[in-house]
Write a structure and sequence with these properties.
The chain is an alpha+beta fold. It folds into three domains: 250 residues, Spore Coat Polysaccharide Biosynthesis Protein SpsA, Chain A, CATH 3.90.550; 61 residues, ppGaNTase-T1 linker domain-like (Helicase, Ruva Protein, domain 3), CATH 1.10.8.460; 123 residues, Trefoil (Trefoil (Acidic Fibroblast Growth Factor, subunit A)), CATH 2.80.10.50. The chain contains 13 helices and 26 strands. The strands form seven sheets. It has a six-stranded antiparallel beta sheet, with helices on one face. Helix 9 packs parallel to helix 10. The longest helix has 16 residues. The chain binds uridine-diphosphate-N-acetylgalactosamine (UD2) and manganese (II) ion. Manganese (II) ion binds next to loops. It holds the Pfam family Ricin_B_lectin. Its EC number is 2.4.1.-.
């Protein structure tokens, strides 16, 4: 590999000195039907780019793969490697969560490092992670995840200017590191970034802390949700989660899932997300339930053990997390309404048709099914759906969906609960029914008090 590339992520990281005495780590890699080349690329990069005395062992957990070469061929191959590589086989397809639990239980290192099965560790990836855990054993640390193209296997450095968040549907998303976090680090980009959530695949955790904090929710299946579950749990229960920007590990981001989801993709992910929402999100789970019609019908099993864990650890409420850890979240901590916005005259509802940025907000027959007709009028007086806000930048419209910027400006709306009007403060005009020319979009008109300017902000609560 070209050395220059591996060293060029951040020149100031190169001069950092780490303590000689660092905890050692087991590296746990779970896989289901992984390709030979990507799996071995992961294992070799761990072995070749970790100081031998810091690497206790590599544990491969085979989640009931069907490919032949992952059986005896793999077993014989790893015998010749210079670091102990243990292979554990799940008896039946269990999903990455329970497979990781099995790997963790079999591991001996002081730290457990989890990696996906299609990664490449770079030189110097491990020391900064372990050093941070040595400083504070309740810090769970992630490297910067570099991007390996799934077409060309080209290696591209990831950004130290994004951190982990999530949207109303509980999808993990990268968002820009906010100014407050830049300020806290006083502009030193070699210092770790405190991140609200982690992507999930690549992180190190002190092994005793992993157990103290409740490992994983073993009731989650196959894939999804466990990364947010662990993120919320760490923060709410007194730990912290960081991206250590001097550590880089590449990951092959794949356009499509290469394996099956027994039970159906949607069902599995919804079930895991319900367990996450029910245990950790308190009343804020409504944002997930109201925007995802149908999800409340999914059976999520028994979460009493996880709720007891939350009590025993005396974890803080989700509102604390939103206020202190993730104030720039897509979920507003305080809001007046969450649900449809219905016009009194036409009885139609605002509808964020394509959920795309920079498009006009629409208006359609109310369907009461959540999804595109869910908006929240927040305490900051923005009308938002997920990360998009109703925005008007010209007199008489149009009304566009734009990324919420929290700067008031063109996204500031005053709801008059007696007159039922939604007044756009900057233009001093009111949201009105569509014009004759375009029946699909609302208009902005001078405020007149007419019925067509009256809107009902429904407060829906579906939460089970
Ligand atoms: C991301 C995470 C992944 C996990 C997931 C949410 C990164 C880079 N990846 O998705 O680790 O947190 O979000 O759940 O942050 N696997 C099994 N059994 C299964 C399914 C998957 O062993 O039934 C293995 C799979 O071979 C891989 C790992 O689990 O090694 C993660 O799966 P993925 O690579 O499909 O997940 P990814 O990267 O899309
Ligand atoms: Mn992956």
């Amino acid at each position: 590999y070209p050395k220059a590339r591996l060293f060029s992520f951040c020149s100031r990281c190169k001069t950092k000195v780490y303590p000689d005495e660092l905890p050692n780590t087991s590296v746990v890699i779970v896989f289901h039907n992984e390709a030979w080349s990507t799996l071995l690329r992961t294992v070799y990069s761990v072995i070749n780019r970790s100081p031998r005395y810091l690497l206790s062992e590599v544990i491969l957990v085979d989640d009931a793969s069907e490919r032949d070469f992952l059986k005896l061929t793999l077993e014989n191959y790893v015998k010749n490697l210079e670091v102990p590589v243990k292979i554990i086989r799940m008896e039946e397809r269990s999903g990455l969560i329970r497979a990781r639990l099995r790997g963790a239980a079999a591991s001996k290192g002081q730290v457990i490092t989890f990696l996906d099965a299609h990664c490449e560790c770079t030189l110097g990836w491990l020391e900064p992670l372990l050093a941070r855990i040595k400083e504070d054993r309740k810090t769970v640390v992630c490297p910067i995840i570099d991007v390996i193209s799934d077409d060309t296997f080209e290696y591209m450095a990831g950004s130290d200017m994004t951190y982990g968040g999530f949207n109303w549907k509980l999808n993990f998303r990268w968002y820009p590191v906010p100014q407050r976090e830049m300020d806290r680090r006083k502009g030193d980009r070699t210092l770790p970034v405190r991140t609200p959530t982690m992507a999930g695949g690549l992180f190190s955790i002190d092994r005793n802390y992993f157990e103290e904090i409740g490992t994983y929710d073993a009731g989650m299946d196959i894939w999804g949700g466990e990364n947010l579950e662990m993120s919320f749990r760490i923060w709410q229960c007194g730990g912290s989660l960081e991206i250590v920007t001097c550590s880089h590990v590449g990951h092959v981001f794949r356009k499509a899932t290469p394996y099956t989801f027994p039970g159906g993709t949607g069902h599995v992910i919804n079930k895991n997300n319900r367990r996450l929402a029910e245990v950790w999100m308190d009343e804020f789970k409504d944002f997930f339930y109201i925007i995802s019609p149908g999800v409340v019908k999914v059976d999520y099993g028994d979460v009493s053990v996880r709720k007891t864990l939350r009590e025993n650890l005396k974890c803080k409420p989700f509102s604390w997390y939103l206020e202190n850890i993730y104030p720039d979240s897509q979920i507003p901590r305080r809001y007046y309404s969450l649900g449809e916005i219905r016009n009194v005259e036409t009885n139609q509802c605002l509808d964020n048709m394509g959920r795309k940025e920079n498009e006009k907000v629409g208006i359609f027959n109310c369907h009461g099914m959540g999804g595109n007709q869910v908006f929240s009028y927040t305490a900051d007086k923005e009308i938002r759906t997920d990360d998009l806000c109703l925005d008007v930048s010209r007199l008489s419209g149009p009304v566009i969906m734009l990324k919420c910027h929290h700067m008031r400006g063109n996204q500031l709306w005053e709801y008059d609960a007696e007159r039922l009007t939604l007044r756009h403060v900057n233009s001093n005009q009111c949201l009105d029914e569509p014009s004759e020319e375009d029946k699909m979009v609302p208009t902005m008109q001078d405020c007149s008090g007419s019925r067509s300017q009256q809107w009902l902000l429904r407060n829906m609560t579906l939460g089970a």
